[in-house]
Amino acid sequence: MKTMENQSIQPAAHPQEACAKCSVYRAANLKKLGVNIDRVDHVIALAGNPNTGKSTVFNALTGLRQHTGNWPGKTVTRAEGAFEYSGKRYKLVDLPGTYSLLSTSLDEEIARDFILFGQPDVTVVVADASRLERNLNLVLQVLEITDRAVLCLNLVDEAQRHGLTVDERQLSRDLGVPVVPTAARSGQGLPELLQAIADVASGKIVCRPHRVENEPPAIRGAVTELVTLIRKAYPDLPNARWVALRLLGGDDHIAEALRKGELGRPREETSGELVRGQTVPVGTVG
Ligand SMILES: Nc1nc2c(ncn2[C@@H]2O[C@H](COP(=O)(O)OP(=O)(O)O)[C@@H](O)[C@H]2O)c(=O)[nH]1
Ligand SMILES: [Mg+2]
User: What distance in angstroms lies between residue 146's CA and the mean position of ligand 2's atoms?
Assistant: First the structure.
């Protein structure tokens, strides 16, 4: 199993192996499946600020120009499509472009709910390399929710035009997830992006995402206690700490989701504790 720390490519043992690592060879393994999203092995979410090239990546991988489907009961649309890569079938979901996931708008709620409740196998965050600092806000928020992510550092051609280069290896070490530079409009970097998606989806690459763990000491006890309760109720939930922080922040949407069991399949006896507490007051648990 490969982790982000020892991800260096080993010399090929024989010529065929070398061939399999070349991007032209790998790109030939891509089959665009359009709207044919049956029998998929993995679900991939595409998140990112508006205008970072999400739809360009989506179209390049699925072969679609634009296909939008309605979220049940909501007016904002998302696009879904599929592709096959190296024998595995992937559903790709193009989420609404957002600057944040803190649910101040319907778009943000949709994007966040999909990453949180949909539990995609990989979330690809498409970021604008020429405006990296601004884009990292969303990247860090996504990495708080999920530990299965790939950063698609798009528009590197634009960045280059402005004299900007990004040290993607260092960025990858700092963030703890694969970082792939791309210029999606011309297809540059997409074979490498596909491979990174496949490796995270299969577990070949294990991400160790950067987490900002500097909550005030006053609420640390409450967070720890809530995390224990949430993990008991939802053993498979990968983001209990994030959920705990949102509950403490009085996020009704998350409290409601816990109550309805939308975070996964809760264990009957323990979920009751959380349901009764709703947004658990800090004083009672910490
Ligand atoms: N120069 C350049 N333009 C790009 C690249 N990727 C996307 N674009 C352009 O950026 C604009 C926004 O792209 P779009 O895919 O609609 O972004 P979205 O809002 O994130 O879905 C479009 O005009 C694309 O053609 C890229 O890598 N380089
Ligand atoms: Mg778009």
Answer: 22
